[in-house]
Specification:
single chain; 216 residues; alpha+beta; Glutaredoxin; 5-stranded mixed sheet; 5 strands; 54% helix; globular
């Protein structure tokens, strides 16, 4: 009897162990599996709508590697692929839980988009992250308004947008999409549905994009 019970327990343990191994080896769900399109409903999109390759970037304005991407790889991707009609590029925000300052930064960039200056403001937020990232939440609107002034925006219009939190829902929608996609960190990208995580120098991006173009 004891031997029979032992064998039953052993068999259950083997099955359970096998099940856990399978779960650990299971591939990460793709947007297709989840019926989620990383680019769907995006508001900040650059490049031809007919471009054969779509890149979706999820970034965080206080992420050092996102800053590296913005300053080192992104300008060359735009020059060589977006502006030549090969790539459609989508920007999405991914503030982490509790990062109210990053949420507000995303709102500020969205307010700048109303005046046609999203990309410039997006990149300025990264360049100035060592400045605004160190101040309290109450002081941020003044900093963000000053950045709008530097870019020649209508500051009164910008401040009305920011102080009224007109764009907060857009930022939170991106955050929720990143959560549903199970994105663990930033920067993260989808290239025609292929998930790519972390900063990549431009030479790597060129290979990734050329492979995607060749596959079309």
């Amino acid at each position: 009897m004891q031997r029979a019970v032992f064998l039953m327990v052993l068999g259950f343990a083997v099955l359970l162990g096998g099940g856990l191994w399978y779960l650990s080896q299971a591939p990460k769900p793709t947007p297709t599996d989840l019926e989620l399109d990383p680019a769907a409903g995006a508001h900040f999109v650059y490049g031809s709508p007919d471009a054969p390759v779509t890149v979706v970037e999820f970034s965080n304005y206080l992420c050092p590697h996102c800053k590296d991407h913005s300053e080192q790889s992104l300008p060359r991707i735009f020059a060589d692929y977006v502006e030549t009609g090969k790539v459609r590029y989508v920007f999405r925000d991914y503030p982490f839980p509790g990062q109210e300052n990053v949420i507000l930064a995303g709102e500020a960039a969205a307010c700048a988009a109303d005046q046609g200056r999203y990309l410039e403001y997006h990149q300025l937020l990264f360049r100035a992250s060592g400045q605004w990232g160190r101040v309290g939440l109450d002081a941020l609107p003044e900093y963000f308004a000053d950045y709008a002034r530097q870019l020649g925006l209508d500051v009164a219009r910008f401040e009305a947008c920011l102080n009224g939190h007109e764009k907060r829902a857009l930022v939170l929608a991106d955050q929720e999409l990143a959560r549903k996609l199970d994105i663990g960190g930033t920067p993260s990208f989808y290239v025609n549905g292929r998930f790519i995580e972390g900063f990549r120098p431009y030479d790597e991006w060129r290979k990734i994009l050329d492979e995607a173009l060749a596959g079309e």
